[in-house]
Batch of 2 targets.
Target 1
Amino acid sequence: MPVFEVALNLVTVWPLTTISAVFSLYVILLYTYRLTLHPLAKYPGPPLAAMSLWYEFYYDFFLRGQYLFRIRDMHAKYGHIVRITPDELHVNDPSFLPELMPSGGRPRDKCDGAQHELHRTRRAAMSKMFSKESVRRLDPVMRRNLDQLLVRLGEFQDDGRELSLLPMFGAFTNDVISEYAYGFSMNWLQAPQFNQVFFDMIMTVHLLMNPKVLTKLRAELNSALPDVSAPLSINKIEQLPYLSAVILESFRLALNTSQRQTRIAREVMTYNDGKRK
């Protein structure tokens, strides 16, 4: 009896059993390939992570986003380079960052399948919105919202009410961004208690915890802006080096996205951990 007829009879007589057997065989062969013949098979890491994406899914879904910390533990056990998914390596070495995300003529494709050239075209369409010239055009918008904020601060002062900086900063940021992005302000500065909007206060907190830094920043601001009632100029603020340094440091200390920024290299990369030449 031909093999095709035998297979057809099996599917007809025992359809569920046959399908289950074929699927099981496929999974076994797939996992065996990923552990032995896959191009990343030589790199260390948990076998379950190399076999299937279900390993990452378990930590992120059932353990609620704990895979990030599991990766940290992998590096402690396996070293600077670990295999964290069937098709992905994770590098824990800041000195290797220029190789992972280089500038110049070495493109890196994105994990969503977008090639470097396509991503560059998409980014160019939006880059003008975030240029310095575009931000400078926001000067009237920022001044108008700042005036509204000062009025609200005066109300809190007159009433003797406590003021939470968290919603206040959030309302100011939201009104500026909404007017720039959508063409109208959401007017959270006018809402009671500033609408309790979340805003990251990392810079304010660290300044209060570091009096020397706060004193130096105040000295620079007092020197550059002696009249607090005078209108602020973005061009003038950009010329304050210590203020710029404080803002950049707050970005570094702030909690950013924990999502991995996967890159696909088109050329072979060589990693030197200082032990090999």
Target 2
Amino acid sequence: METEPIYCAEQIVLPAGLDEVLKNFTKEAIRNQPHDLVDFGATYFAAQATLHKNLHAVEIPTQQQLRDAFECLRATPTGPLIDVQAACRSVGISEATVASAVRAGNVNTGREVSVLEVLALLLSMRCDGLGAVLRNAFEVFGQRGGDSGDTSSNGSASARLEVPVLLQLLGFLGARDPEVTTAMREGVARALDGHVSVDLKSLAGVPALASKLALA
């Protein structure tokens, strides 16, 4: 009597998406070359589970929420995604919203993430172009002299953004937005060389960004 093979093709049913999940994990493992693959896998899949949790709850974060999150995380420029999500959740930004931004930005979640990068991606969710991102960046990441709480365009004009923060933002955006070219980033870096911080009006005067930040 013939017996049916235990693992014939008809008996093997792969869960939907298994190939993509394993492919992505393999790519991250090769990229990171972890000493402890099991521990790396646990961290990676925990982060992936967090990213997929409650994706229906995505909401565009407010400018004030982003600023509050930045203040919470200012002292820790990098950290586990779970910690960044916890800080964002404490100011009203859902884990699902953070997950959506991270997925859209293709952020490597198998290691510590850049706080500024994640917040920049969240900021881009509420902006329709580079000019809007940069104008909003002054309110989210900038320093205001009197800190009156004014979040109007006048408030943006009076805020100052640290040059290293600005250049990092352009770097993060340049990795994802063809509008932010290498020539643009280099032009901004040259124009602001030696400056500690910059206000919006001065930044709009930088030739590389003049057309993006034309002020009314």
